[in-house]
From TrEMBL:
GO molecular function: DNA binding
Protein name listed in UniProt: DNA-binding PadR family transcriptional regulator
Tagged with keyword DNA repair: no
Alphabetical list of Pfam families matching this protein: PadR, Vir_act_alpha_C
Domain Transcription regulator PadR C-terminal: 92-177
UniProt keyword annotation of Lipid metabolism present: no
Domain of life: Bacteria
Coiled coil, from the record: 119-179
Residues covered by the Transcription regulator PadR N-terminal domain: 7-81
């Protein structure tokens, strides 16, 4: 998946500036995808060049002009084709697992600390996502629409993955403690 698909999905909700898109990425789907400001603006420029989006200048009265991006019919078609297309193999990057993979020479107490810190992080993230999901879930039920339901479902999937990792961390930590030093 490319960032342009993420941005097209957001632009189908409503026209947005690059700033608005970055803010939306950070506030609503950071559990699924992240990008820095430069990536967002580079991708937007490419999308405009490819005809997937257009830019409309909104004149500012007491503030600078805004460059608002709108999804085009071609952009909607590219998004639809991607949504209905085959699922690509996902590139996996697991920084914690790379640490574990390379941690064989650490002392037992250092290994236990490594896992204990990860456990704390996971427990905090799970609590945060549960609160976000609960708030969104209530809103989704009140709205009674598919889009809100699917947004809440992505949070649920993230929570399930984090809980599975937490279970693995606890189990691995327990097994580590039983190994000879």
């Amino acid at each position: 998946m490319a960032l342009n698909h993420v941005l097209l999905g957001l632009l189908q909700l409503s026209p947005m500036t690059g700033y608005d898109l970055k803010k939306h990425l950070d506030s609503s789907i950071s559990h699924l995808w992240s990008a820095d400001k430069a990536q967002v603006y580079r991708t937007l420029a490419t999308m405009v060049d490819e005809g997937l989006a257009t830019v409309h200048v909104v004149r500012g009265v007491n503030f600078p002009d805004r460059q608002e991006h709108h999804i085009t019919d071609k952009g909607r078609e590219v998004l639809r084709e991607w949504l209905l297309g085959p699922n690509e193999k996902q590139t996996v990057r697991e920084p914690f697992l790379i640490r574990v993979f390379n941690a064989g020479n650490l002392e037992a107490v250092e290994l236990e600390t490594l896992f204990a810190v990860r456990q704390e992080v996971l427990e905090r993230e799970i609590a945060e996502f549960n609160a976000e999901r609960d708030a969104l879930g209530d809103a989704a039920q009140r709205a009674g629409n598919r889009r809100s339901f699917l947004m809440a479902a992505t949070l649920e999937a993230t929570i399930v993955k984090l809980e599975a990792e937490l279970k693995w961390v606890k189990s691995t930590l327990k097994q580590l403690k039983s190994l000879p030093a």
